[in-house]
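Reopening this one. Same input as before:
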Amino acid sequence: MSDDEAYLDKSPSAARMGVAAEYLVAASCILATEGELNVSTSLVDDEGVDLVFHRRGSSATLAVQVKARMSTGVGVREGRFLANVRSPTFTARSDLDMLFVAVDVKRGAIMTAWLVPSRAFGEMAGEPNSRGRLRFSASLKPGSRDRWTPYRLTSAELSRRVLDRLAELEKAGW
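Same output, byte for byte:
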């Protein structure tokens, strides 16, 4: 099945929900930092960047590709977060992170997130599968210890981690 055919198999609301999750992340981070963080969005995300974060008064930026899964999905209901990243749109670099986020649809809130620097993601995800996709698979269960656990965040921790990543990039001269 081609990517075009796979796209047609998705729910008509999948793209809408994905964009809503991106805006939820952006708004949550701005609010949680009382405006210290600002977020820009892409008109076209064909380069794998959905959000670009920057701190007020700083020139460092952090590009983020967001992969969201909803609480209404089978995987999330079963306590698992699964996502594929297309290798043609993925290029590991210091100023790009992957954000995997589970969203509680009823509350309109972030349940769990994983903010993974793209270089770490590229190393940990391994080689693309036969369809050219890198796989992310993590447990949503409390106390689970999988390889993605060091990157796991609560909703409250996400904005602080974005600020930390921006500080790392600024220190490195990005």
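So the earlier flakiness isn't reproducible anymore. For the record, The chain is about 30% helix and 30% strand.
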